[in-house]
Every structure is written in structure tokens, then in C-alpha cells.
Amino acid sequence: MSGKVVFITGGNRGIGLELTKAFAADPANTVIASARDPSKATELQSLSNVHKVYPFLLKKSTRVISFTSSLAGSIGGFFEASSSGYGGSKAALNHFTKLLAYELRDEGFTVIAVHPGVVSTDMGNATVPRFGEDTRKAMESLIITPEESAESQLKLLLGLTKEQSGKFLSYTGEELPW
To answer: What terms describe the molecular function in GO for this protein (predicted)?
Structure first.
């Protein structure tokens, strides 16, 4: 377990704290842990080689949190496809994005969810053939490379405005329905 870099959410209590302690016991590991309220995470703060995410985010005036979502998680943009587990998890992520944008608004954060496009990754290539014929044909015409998606997302992230916080955006910058 030596020499790992781990990010642990909820690292201030319960299972998260115990995992944080276990990884932090080896000084060769880099442990990054989050806590809902860092000021109350006294036991977490006592661990000398654990990095807290929130203080890193506060070091810059540009505070952007971007979550990779998917149109499969859009309720307003629902399309007929069997993606219940994946789509449900992305719908939950979209909801979390909206909540976090609300919670961090007064601290100058811009929080968004981004649909990366129909990307020719292992996952994307395995998924498209499972759709019905009409959906599959439509999706095949939209396929982009991982490089194209990343380039477009980088442009989007570098040009974000505070007004876009709490939005669900396409990799092209278009606002999508939740």
C-alpha cells in the first residue's frame, strides 16, 4: 500500500477517517481528505501528512469545481435508453452539483456538471451499440474523440462565468436540461 495517492471523501469521521488513518500511517502515501466542516474535523487535522481539499481550493480566487456528468442523468432531456444504474448515478451527481453550487456561492465558487459528449472511449464504444436503431444512428453521428472532448471542456472551464454556476453544460458550453 506504499506510495499511493488517495482522495477520501468524508475523511473526518467513521469509515472515511479510519481509511484516512490507514493510508496516512505510511509516509510514502499522499492522502487528500475532505470534510463537510473542516473546522470541526479535529482528528483529521491532527494527521500530519493528510492534505485537505478545501484549503487548497481557497488559495486561488478562481474557484471552479467541475463534475463529469452525462445526458443519461438528465431528467428533462430524457431519451429512451437502458441506462438505469449509470443514468441514476449521474442524476444524483447533477443534484449534488446544484446543491454544492448553492452551498459554496458566497465563497466565490463556480460549480458545474458537464456532459463530455458521446466520446469514443472504451465505455462509449461499448454503450452506443446497445441502443435502439434510431438512437444508435443519432449517437454515431455525434461521436467525438477523447482529445476533442478534453479540448472543448478546457475551453469551457477557462471561460466560465459566475452566472454559469449550478448549471448542467455540454462540453460545447450549451446549457442542458437537468
So the answer is: oxidoreductase activity, acting on the CH-OH group of donors, NAD or NADP as acceptor
Per-residue pLDDT tens over the stretch 18-73: 888 888 888 888 888 888 888 888 888 888 767 767 777 777 777 888 888 988 78
User: Catalytic: which of 4, 52, 54, 86?
Assistant: 86
Q: Helix, strand, or coil here: 167?
A: coil
Is 40 designated active site?
A: no
- Which residue, 14, 15, 21, 12, is CA-closest to 1? 21
Q: Is 54 a catalytic residue?
A: no
pTM: 0.71
DSSP state of 177: -
Report how far apart, in Å, the C-alpha atoms of 125 and of each of 99, 107, 122, 131, 132 are.
Answer: 32, 40, 5, 12, 15
Can you tell me the distance from the alpha carbon of 151 to that of 112, in angstroms, rounded to the nearest whole number? 17
The phi, psi pair for 150, rounded to 5°, reads: -65, -45
Question: Are 38 and 11 contacting, i.e. CB atoms less than 8 angstroms apart?
Answer: no
CA distance 136 to 96: 29
Q: How far apart are CA 102 and CA 166, in angstroms?
A: 7
Which homologous superfamily is 5-170 in?
NAD(P)-binding Rossmann-like Domain (3.40.50.720)
Catalytic residue among 52, 90, 98, 167: 90
